[in-house]
Design goal:
Strand content: under 5%
Radius of gyration: 39 Å
Strand order of the largest sheet: 1-2
Mean pLDDT: 84
Largest sheet: 2 strands, parallel
Order of helices and strands: HEHHEHEEHHHHHHHHHHHHHHHHH
Structural class: mainly alpha
Length: 402
Amino acid sequence: MVRLWQWGAAVVLGIVVSIAYSSAPAEAVDPAKIPHPVAGNEQCLLCHGAGQAQAVPATHTAFDQGTCLSCHQAAPAAAAQQDCMTCHAQPGLTHTLPSGEKLPLYIDAKVFAASIHGNKLACTDCHSSISGYPHPKLEVKTRRQYNIVQYETCKRCHFDNYTKTLDSVHYQMLARGDERTPLCTDCHGAHDVAKPSQPRSKISQTCARCHEDINSSYVNGVHGKALIEESNYDVPVCTDCHRSHTIEDPRTAAFRLKSVQICSDCHANDKLMKKYGISPNVVKTYLEDFHGKTVALIEKEGRDIWAREAVCTDCHGVHDIQRVDDPTSPVIRENLGNTCRQCHAEATTNFPSAWLSHYEPSVTRAPLVFFVRWFYMILIPFILVGLSVHILLDIWRAVTNR
């Protein structure tokens, strides 16, 4: 009877304890953070049951499997993509910065999915400081400062291109504290990043955001017209001459000397030039005349020496290059005298006639120069051979007459 009474009392006490725990207010339970991922480990008591390495406290023995996660919460983890879009898919979502500017927070999910990063990166791969909501406070005052703070995010994946930018004229501006300098996202975009060459005309349009005047000259030149009006991808765009990440200051002596090589990348390409009926020898003929030979010698002496002799852009222009038969071209016969007078102030109207342009002498073009050249090509070897024979015969006579 006593044992039966003791057993009954124990049952009643257990029921009372269970009711007490189950009705305990939330404040009485320590809402400890779970220091590991919960996904896949929802059966807590498999590891934390009685006799396990980390057994539940004695006060928790009355709780069942399903109550663990109602008090204990998983440690914050990187937010899933769909979690971010719960808020950021709302059109018009913005954050007001101390400057009064509105920082747009709306992300078009379709645009991001179609971007080059859409199936490769999650939101927190770039926004690594954000792991949940509420987000950390933004310690910036303006939109531009926010862009600069995010600037180095790209180097995690694109370290090679990032290091190239450190030698560019744009980074020099940033180092001086000029916030107008273009950053990665200014050229490539942020959530809509696409291949920079699709379409190819997009490259020059991107540069035009800062270099509007230069772009106006380019689109009215022979290269820009062919690209925009004819969709001709053979013509150069900004990055072909200035590069993309290692952009140099084009006003330096080094870039002036380098400009000849830049032009020759296309104009010495035999296959490409023949496609458009242009002589592939223009660079060769330039390097053979006074201007080209002098510039080549200066380049050997040092890239920091300013070459006063004419390079390609002095005669043809820089961004506003026209066809050589265009009435506005600086190298058409009617305008060539004025072009020469930029360096040769006393040049007369007939001054350009002394130059063969980029043509090599032939029977039909500059025949006198052609025949004089051939005369010397025959005469000089004849004289050298004759002189050598004369010396040998003189030596032979001196030896035999001893």
